[in-house]
Design a protein that fits this description.
Layout lengths: L1 E2 L5 E3 L6 E7 L2 E8 L2 H16 L14 H17 L17
Antiparallel strand pairs: 1-2, 2-3, 3-4
Helix pairs in contact: 1-2
């Protein structure tokens, strides 16, 4: 995997798949794989906004996203966290300053 110029996005070696990942220190949560770098970056942005609100560091302007999109991402993260509740990996997720 290669790092994209956009926060939270990696690119497959063949450049055909873009992966959005939420990172917190050494922990990470995959958010999905996408056909375009922009979609992966937007997904990462929504995750950052869901966790950090106005303090989020995003790839695109905050105004691009609706409250409903952010709420849906928050629900998605909550479900993923609940599924990983017993996993030590990523169990320390908290609303702290983002680490990129």
């Amino acid at each position: 995997m290669l790092k994209s110029k956009l926060n939270g996005v990696t690119v497959s070696n063949k450049g055909r798949v873009f992966t959005a990942t939420l990172r917190m220190g050494q922990d990470s949560m995959p958010l999905g794989q996408f056909k375009t770098e922009r979609l992966a970056a937007e997904t990462h942005d929504l995750a950052m906004l869901a966790l950090y609100g106005d303090q989020a560091i995003t790839n695109y302007p905050r105004q691009k996203y609706t409250t409903e999109q952010i709420r849906n991402m928050s629900d998605f993260i909550d479900r993923r966290m609940a599924a990983r509740e017993n996993s030590p990996s990523f169990s320390q997720l908290s609303k702290q300053a983002p680490i990129q």
